[in-house]
Design brief:
Number of strands: 25
Shape: globular
Structural class: alpha/beta
Strand order of the largest sheet: 4-3-5-2-6-7-1-10
CATH topology of the largest domain: Rossmann fold
Strand content: 5-15%
Radius of gyration: 30 Å
Helix content: 40-55%
Length: 869
C-alpha cells in the first residue's frame, strides 16, 4: 500500500511544474537566506547547525521563499514543521506547485482520503523504513506531540540528519509557546544542518491586564533562531503592492432585545447569547451590503455559537430583504456555513471550496452569490488560505492573543489588486444610555483594543501612528454620509466628518521621511467608526489601551527598582527572582521586581532592549551578567518548587514561577554535581584534574541539599528517586503501600505501577535501592514464582495501563494507531509496550473486563468502538 501511495506522491512531486517567477521581494529573501545558510566555503558546520530567520508580512509568499531556498541550497532531505493538520496538507501542495521534486511524506494521523495522496504515518519505525533510503524526500509534520514526538523516536532509531528544517509560523515555538514545542530547536532531539525560521509576527504582546507580557518573542540574533536574513514589514509590503491595504470597521450596536435579556438573566445565559448573536447577524449583513463585503469569516470561541451564527444568517437575510428589497439581496443569494476542529479535513476543504465559489448551490448553479459568511472555531488559523476573503469579523475575542493575531492575518492574506481592501469588522456593543465618547473606559471597546493589539504584531508602525492625536480619520470617495436605523439594531454606515482640531499641526518631524509620511497617511484612513468619534479621544484610546500598557509596565518597573535601591542603601540591583515590592503607598508597590529585572536581562542579552532603557537601568546599578545572578534566581525558584511539591526532583520539562525552566536548571546543576564527585574521585586516585571547571561549589551543593537531600541521585535515575520520594511521603503520612497500577496517582506519577515494577524487577535493583525500599517502605520482592521474567496478568495490565496513562498525558487523547508502541521507563530501563494492539484487543473483549478495569480506561477517554473501519 505504501509503495503505491509513495509512487503517486513521487509522481505528483516529480511532475515538471511551470517555472514560478519569484517576485522581487521573494528573490531578495532567497538570496539572503542562501547567504546565511550556505556556510563558510570549505568550513565546518557548527554543532548547533546554521540558523536564520525570515520575517515577512502575511500573504507575502513565505512558502515560495522556503521552496526556492531549499532548491538553491541543494537540500535533499527537508523537514517542514507547521502548527496544524490543515496547514500541513496545504503546505505539501504548495511545495509541490513550487517545483519541489521527490517523495513527500506526512508525520500525522491523516488517512489517504484526507492527505491529498501523501502517505502518512505515526509509527517511527515505519517512517524510518519509508524515507531512510530515498534520494530526495520532503517530510511534513506538526509541532504537536504526534508530530514532534514521532520524529524524535525515529531519530533515536536511526533517522538521518535533515539537510534543511523549515519552521513555519515560528513564533509559536518562542515565548510561552516555546515550552511544549522546544524540541524543534535542539540538535539532540531533531538534528538538522540548517534551520530556517519563518513568521509574520515575531513579537506578540498580551496587552490586557496590569502586567503585559510578551507571549511570543523571536529575539533577533539569538542562538535559538539565528540572525534575521530578511525582513518585510506589513506597511512596506502594502506600500510595495505585495499585499492589500486594510481598514478596521467598528460597528456600533444598540439592541433592545439584548438589553432586556441582560436585565433579566446572567450575561452567559442562552437567551443573552442568542440576543447578542442576532444583533451581530443583523449588523454584519448590513455592513456587508454597505461596504460591499462578499466573503466574510466570523471567528468564535464556542462551537455552538459558530453553528448558531451560520444557521441564523439565512433567516436574518430574509427579514432584511423583506424590509428593504432594494438594499438587500434575496435570502437565496446569501450563503452561510461553519467549521470547527472536529470536522474532517476533506469536509473542511469542500466547505472552503464553496466559500470561494461565485455561485450558490454548486458548480452548475446559475444563482450568483451576494454574500458568503463562514463561521469557525480555531480551525482557520495559521497560514491556512481562505480563498481571498475580504473581511474578518471578530464576533468573540476571548481567545489568546496569538489566536487573535492569526485571525487578523486571515483578512490580510489578500492578493493585491485594484480596489481590494481588507476589512476587519469589530462589533461594539454599547449600553442603552452609553455615550460613544466613553471610549477610554468602556468595556464595550475591549475587543477593539485586542484587535488593534493583534494588528500591532503585524504592523507596529501604522498602529502606533494612530496614537498621534494629529491623525485625522479618513473618508473614502463616494461614501454615503447618512445613518440607517435597522429596526432593533441601530447601526450607522459611515464615519462622520472629521473634526478639524489639530489639523493645523503638521507632522514637522516627518518632513523628508517618505516612509513615515506613507505610514501616517495609511493610519489616517485605517480606523472607521459607525458614528462620530473625537479623534483626540481615539488617539488616547490607542495610546492608553493598546500601546501604553507595555510602556506603563516599564514605568512601574523603573519605579519599583528605584524604590528598592533607595530602601537597600544603593549599590547594584541584585534583587531576588521572587521578590515582589511590598504593599504601601510608595511607587512600585505590589510589583514583581525580581522577575521583571530577569526579563530585562534576557532582552538585553538578546540585543532587543532599547538603548534608552539600558541607560535608565544602568543609572540604577543594573546587573547585566546573567551568570552573576542566575544561581540566585534558580535557587529561589527551586525553593518555591520544592515547597509546592514536597521534593526537588522536577522533570526536565518542569516550569516554575513566572515560566522559569526549573527542570532544565536542576538538570544542569545535577550534571555539575556529578562532575564534581567524579573529579574528586579522580583526584583521590592521584590523577590531575583542573579545579572548578564545570563543577558545583561546595556552598551551592549544600544549599541544594538543604532543600532536598536526595535532589541528585547517583546510582539510579531521577524518575526513580521521584517515585520513591512520593511513595515514602504517602506511606509516612499513614497511607497504605499501593499494590497495583492506578491505585495511587501523585503529581502525574502512577505509584502503584511503580511499586509493582520494583517487586517484579527486584533483582535488577542496586543493593542501595533494595535497602531503601525495604527499610523505608517495607516493600519486598515478588514471590519466587513471579521472578521468571514474565509478569502476572495483573502485572501486565498494570504495565499496559501505565503506558496508556503516559500516552494520554502527553497526547491529550487515547487514540494511538494500531501499530503504536509506547516506551515506558521501568527501573531505569526502556520497555516497549504495544499500546495500540493492547487497546485494540481490549475493545474486542470489553464485555469480559471487570468494572474497575473498564473504569480505568474510561477515565482516559477510551473509545470502545474503532475509530475507522
Amino acid at each position: 500500500m505504501f509503495t503505491r501511495c509513495l509512487c503517486i506522491a513521487e509522481q505528483k512531486a516529480g511532475l515538471r511544474m511551470p517555472h514560478i517567477e519569484l517576485r522581487p521581494h521573494q528573490s531578495e529573501a532567497v538570496d539572503a537566506v542562501v547567504n546565511h545558510l550556505q556556510g563558510p566555503p570549505g568550513g565546518r558546520i557548527p554543532p548547533e547547525g546554521l540558523r536564520t530567520q525570515v520575517i515577512a508580512a502575511t500573504g507575502s509568499g513565505k512558502t515560495l521563499i522556503a521552496v526556492e531556498s531549499a532548491r538553491r541550497l541543494s537540500a535533499r532531505r527537508v523537514l517542514v514543521l507547521v502548527p496544524t493538520l490543515d496547514l500541513l496538507t496545504q503546505m505539501a501542495g504548495a511545495w509541490r506547485r513550487g517545483g519541489r521534486r521527490g517523495a513527500m511524506v506526512g508525520v500525522c494521523d491523516l488517512g489517504p482520503e484526507e492527505s491529498d495522496g501523501i502517505p502518512c504515518t505515526t509509527d517511527p519505525d515505519e517512517l524510518l523504513s519509508w524515507v531512510q533510503d530515498l534520494e530526495q524526500v520532503t517530510v511534513f509534520a506538526t509541532y504537536a506531540a504526534v508530530g514532534l514526538g514521532k520524529l524524535q523516536r525515529a531519530h533515536e532509531a536511526g533517522l538521518p540528519v535533515w539537510d534543511l528544517m523549515i519552521v513555519d509560523e515560528a513564533h509559536r515555538t518562542s515565548g510561552d509557546g516555546m515550552k511544549p514545542w522546544a524540541a524543534v530547536h535542539h540538535q539532540a532531539r531533531i538534528p538538522a544542518v540548517r534551520r530556517l525560521y519563518m513568521t509574520a509576527t515575531p513579537r506578540v504582546w498580551e496587552a490586557e491586564g496590569e502586567q503585559p507580557r510578551l507571549v511570543a518573542s523571536m529575539d533577533e540574533d539569538s542562538p535559538i533562531f539565528g540572525p534575521v536574513a530578511y525582513k518585510l514589514k506589513l506597511s512596506e509590503a502594502i506600500q510595495r503592492g505585495v499585499v492589500a491595504p486594510y481598514q478596521v470597521l467598528c460597528l456600533d450596536i444598540r439592541d433592545p432585545d439584548l438589553y432586556a435579556a441582560l436585565a433579566e438573566e446572567a450575561g452567559g445565559s442562552d437567551r443573552v447569547r442568542g440576543a447578542r448573536l442576532a444583533a451581530l447577524q443583523t449588523g454584519l449583513l448590513t455592513a456587508a451590503e454597505r461596504e460591499r463585503l462578499r466573503r466574510i469569516l466570523t471567528f468564535h470561541s464556542r462551537v455552538s455559537e459558530a453553528e448558531a451564527m451560520a444557521r441564523g444568517v439565512p433567516s436574518v437575510a430574509a427579514r432584511l430583504a423583506e424590509d428593504d428589497p432594494e438594499a438587500f439581496p434575496p435570502a437565496e443569494r446569501v450563503w452561510a456555513n461553519w467549521l470547527h476542529g472536529d470536522h474532517a479535513p476533506g469536509y473542511r476543504r469542500e466547505v472552503l471550496a464553496e466559500f470561494a465559489s461565485d455561485f450558490i448551490g454548486g458548480v452548475r448553479s446559475d444563482i450568483p452569490a451576494a454574500v458568503r459568511v463562514l463561521s469557525s472555531v480555531k480551525v482557520l488559523g495559521e497560514g491556512v488560505d481562505t480563498a481571498e476573503c475580504d473581511a474578518v469579523a471578530f464576533c468573540d475575542a476571548r481567545g489568546s492573543m496569538v489566536d487573535i493575531v492569526q485571525m487578523v492575518g486571515r483578512a490580510l492574506r489578500l492578493s493585491p489588486g485594484e480596489g481590494k481592501l481588507a476589512s476587519l469588522v469589530v462589533p461594539v456593543f454599547l449600553g442603552p444610555d452609553e455615550d460613544t465618547d466613553e471610549i477610554l473606559t468602556s468595556d464595550a471597546y475591549g475587543t477593539l483594543a485586542k484587535v488593534l493589539g493583534a494588528l500591532r504584531a503585524h504592523d507596529a508602525d501604522t498602529i502606533e501612528a494612530l496614537a498621534d492625536p494629529r491623525q485625522r480619520s479618513g473618508r473614502r470617495t463616494g461614501d454615503d454620509e447618512t445613518q440607517v436605523p435597522l429596526s432593533e439594531v441601530e447601526l450607522g454606515a459611515e464615519l462622520a466628518e472629521d473634526q478639524d482640531q489639530g489639523a493645523e499641526d503638521g507632522p514637522e518631524a516627518d518632513e523628508g521621511a517618505e516612509d513615515d509620511v506613507w505610514v501616517s497617511q495609511a493610519a489616517a484612513g485605517l480606523l472607521r467608526f459607525s458614528s462620530p468619534r473625537d479623534p483626540a479621544l481615539v488617539a488616547q484610546f490607542v495610546s492608553l489601551r493598546v500601546i501604553d500598557p507595555e510602556k506603563a509596565y516599564w514605568r512601574r518597573g523603573i519605579a519599583a527598582a528605584t524604590r528598592w535601591r533607595r530602601e537597600n542603601g544603593g549599590g547594584q540591583l541584585r534583587v531576588p527572582y521572587d521578590y515582589v515590592m511590598g504593599e504601601d503607598e510608595s511607587a512600585g508597590s505590589g510589583f514583581p521586581l525580581g522577575r521583571w529585572l530577569a526579563d530585562q536581562r534576557r532582552y538585553y542579552n538578546a540585543g532587543t532592549l532599547e538603548a534608552s532603557r539600558v541607560a535608565q537601568l544602568d543609572a540604577l546599578g543594573m546587573v547585566w551578567s546573567h551568570h552573576d545572578v542566575a544561581w540566585e534566581e534558580g535557587l529561589t525558584v527551586a525553593r518555591s518548587w520544592a515547597a509546592a511539591h514536597g521534593h526537588f526532583l522536577p522533570p526536565v520539562n518542569a516550569v516554575g514561577d513566572g515560566g522559569y525552566p526549573i527542570g532544565v536548571w536542576a538538570k544542569n546543576r545535577r550534571a555539575e554535581a556529578r562532575r564534581t564527585w567524579e573529579n574528586a574521585e579522580q583526584r583521590a586516585a592521584g590523577e590531575t584534574v583542573p579545579v572548578g571547571a564545570g563543577e558545583l561549589p561546595e556552598s551551592r551543593m549544600a544549599a541544594l541539599e538543604a532543600i532536598d537531600p536526595g535532589w541528585c541521585p547517583l546510582g539510579w535515575t531521577v524518575a526513580w528517586q521521584r517515585c520513591f520520594t512520593l511513595t515514602r511521603t504517602h506511606v509516612g503520612a499513614g497511607g497504605a503501600l499501593p499494590e497495583r497500577a492506578g491505585e495511587l496517582l501523585v503529581q502525574g506519577e502512577d505509584l502503584g505501577a511503580w511499586a509493582a515494577a520494583q517487586r517484579h524487577g527486584w533483582d535488577k535493583l542496586t543493593p542501595a535501592q533494595q535497602w531503601l525500599l525495604g527499610s523505608t517502605l517495607g516493600l519486598e520482592p515478588a514471590a519466587p514464582g513471579a521472578q521468571s521474567g514474565k509478569l502476572t496478568a495483573d502485572g501486565r495490565w498494570a504495565l499496559n495501563l501505565r503506558a496508556a496513562r503516559q500516552y494520554h498525558a502527553r497526547e491529550g487523547h487515547l487514540r494511538p494507531g494500531r501499530k503504536h508502541i509506547e516506551r515506558v521507563d521501568v527501573d531505569g530501563e526502556a520497555v516497549d509496550i504495544k499500546l495500540g494492539m493492547f487497546l485494540d484487543n481490549t475493545r474486542r473483549r470489553a464485555d469480559k473486563l471487570t468494572p474497575d478495569r473498564r473504569s480505568e480506561l474510561d477515565q482516559l477517554g477510551m473509545r470502545w468502538q474503532p475509530d475507522r473501519t
